[in-house]
Design goal:
Layout lengths: L30 E8 L5 E6 L2 H9 L12 E9 L2 H11 L4 H8 L9
Antiparallel strand pairs: 1-2, 1-3
Length: 115
């Protein structure tokens, strides 16, 4: 009978594998929910991104089909989250809110643009 695990009698445990040097290191990437206000007609756009400033530039360059007809856009609110699921949940809730709430958020402590 052939030996298991390279030469033993078949009862050896798995070999100990060394983890890569970076296995214990990881970077928590923040996730952002943002609100834009159209300077053309005053409508609001709610979104999620890992880089809200790059995303704003994308909206203002016409690369987003949902926002290109209402350019230029002003960034009025940004909120930071540690998990993607939290951010997406918050974005979904914001999509049901009214303009008065967005204007209140603009001056709230949650808005990282105010810090």
């Amino acid at each position: 009978m052939p030996p298991c695990h390279g030469g033993g009698r078949g009862f050896e445990s798995r070999p100990v594998r060394k983890s890569p040097a970076t296995a214990g290191l990881f970077v928590l990437m923040p996730f952002y929910v943002y609100i834009l206000k159209s300077l053309k007609d005053g409508t609001y756009y709610k979104g999620f991104s890992e880089n809200y400033s790059t995303r704003l530039a994308s909206h203002n360059s016409g690369k987003s089909r949902y926002t290109k007809d209402k350019m230029p856009w002003e960034l009025i609110f940004v909120e930071e989250f540690t998990s993607k699921s939290e951010a997406l949940s918050r974005e979904k809730k914001l999509k049901r809110c009214k303009a008065e709430y967005f204007e209140w958020l603009r001056t709230s402590e949650k808005n990282i643009l105010n810090k």
